[in-house]
């Protein structure tokens, strides 16, 4: 099996773009990679919109957000989205992360609730930190190995 991920590509203004995505069970993160065949071709901005009860905080290139849903009677969740770039510039402006002229963007998303117990913020940070030590290729390799093992392919 050499798949277990979503991959799309398109061409615009002579630049070939590629988007790859998978949700890694072993590493407990969702992983997105945006790349292009020409340097300095990727620019984007990102932000999170939730209810007024959501606490949203930027720490470097990572946005953290948490909420006690259901007006404080439901589950508590914490999520973190990390943006790693190759090349280009990155800054936070008006609550948005702005990436200009990057060669590649790697996004990792970790999210945890207390539905099954535990401390969502702590667990979320542990999953994200562990994934930050691994590059896209290693995360993908671990993901595919788990899929192959689970499906006996």
From TrEMBL:
Pfam families: Glyco_hyd_65N_2. GO terms for molecular function: alpha-L-fucosidase activity. Gene3D superfamilies: putative glycoside hydrolase family protein from bacillus halodurans. Residues 3-117 form the Glycosyl hydrolase family 95 N-terminal domain. PANTHER family: ALPHA-L-FUCOSIDASE 2. This is Glycosyl hydrolase family 95 N-terminal domain-containing protein. The lineage of its organism: Bacteria, Pseudomonadati, Bacteroidota, Bacteroidia, Marinilabiliales.
């Amino acid at each position: 099996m050499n798949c277990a991920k979503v991959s799309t590509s398109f061409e615009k203004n002579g630049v070939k773009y590629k988007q790859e995505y998978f949700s890694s069970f072993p590493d407990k993160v969702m992983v997105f990679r945006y790349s292009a065949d020409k340097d300095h071709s990727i620019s984007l901005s990102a932000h999170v919109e939730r209810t007024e009860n959501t606490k949203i905080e930027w720490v470097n290139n990572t946005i953290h957000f948490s909420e006690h849903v259901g007006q404080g009677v439901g589950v508590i969740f914490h999520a973190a989205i990390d943006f790693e770039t190759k090349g280009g510039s990155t800054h936070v402006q008006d609550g948005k992360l702005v990436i200009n002229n990057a060669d590649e963007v790697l996004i990792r998303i970790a999210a945890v609730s207390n539905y099954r117990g535990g401390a969502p913020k702590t667990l979320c940070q542990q999953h994200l930190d562990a994934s930050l030590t691994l590059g896209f290729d290693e995360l993908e390799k671990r993901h595919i190995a788990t899929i192959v093992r689970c499906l006996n392919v």
